Amino acid sequence: MNEIERFYATMEYNPRDRAMFWAWGAWPETLERWKKERPDFDKIDLNGKADIRQSFNHWFFPDPPFERKIIEETNRHILYINHEGILMRERKDNPYSSMPQFVRFPVETRQDFRKFWKERMVPDLEKRICPDWKNFLKEARLKPFPFIIISDRWGGFFGPLRNLVGIEKLCMLFYDDTVFLEEMMDANADFIISMMSQILDVISIDGFGFWEDMAHKSGPLISPEMVRRFMFPRYRRVVDFLNNRGVKFIGLDSDGYIDSLIPVWLDAGLNFLYPFEVQAGMDVIKVREKYGKNLRIWGGVDKRSIANGRKAIDEEIKRITPLIEEGGYIPHTDHSIPPDVSLDNYLYYLEKMFETCEKIIH
User: May I ask the CATH architecture of the domain 3-67+110-359?
Assistant: First the structure.
């Protein structure tokens, strides 16, 4: 089997030559640590024997991006406008793996939103992918790897709006100005469908993912009832469009404790979720027991176990092995590898994960 065949066999609970897993990647600070630990770092394959996928996740960003503009700088922090138009304060020592302070967002009024959308959310694939985007897509589709489009940060109905107006204001809009809220949601549904219509005119794809990141360790940032009332119709519209164009696997990325949202997403036609953040209480074994095989699961490997050494890694892989055996599950870490993970531990994790998947043949 190649990776595409193995992907479909896994997602459809069919016989496969072995189980599969994906590498998730590491924070830049982690890579800096690993470079110091191993003089031969540049020669090491950080994917190990993990399966390969083609994951395209930047085509949905605002384009043109905002010009990066530094507003203030101290010895410890930098205040600047990022490529999404957000004014943010970041630590200089760990800018990627620390949480920035969001000071101001690009949209404060309905007029701001309409201007932003008109100028920066045009579904022009020559600019968003490349001038020769049709041939680019065709050549990528010929490769023997799953072709998955993840609409990272700008494909959804909470996460992208959060980037526009900020979390606090967005949560208030669900009560104070639902007309404005729904205008933004509908605009993004239109944008996704326009983007995907052009792509699907040229090639088929193996999966599509929304992006939300709408929960913390205690639960979602808005109630499941609000998700069902406002977001569900927009999910349903996009999902129906994609299904009618032959896209079988449609899912969603959200960190945090998302259990109460899973029924809404399943009802909306989504059939995979990730990354199942363990430290937020998401246990992929319990999720499968509760929601059954209609929900395919990606992720759920506790990244903290990799920092704790070989015994902890062995125990974590043993914990998820029953789900690997059952199918409908592609293991990977529940987020990017943090800087407390040594390179030796990470390489051991990759090797042990492959050994486990290689033994599982159905």
Answer: Alpha-Beta Barrel (3.20)
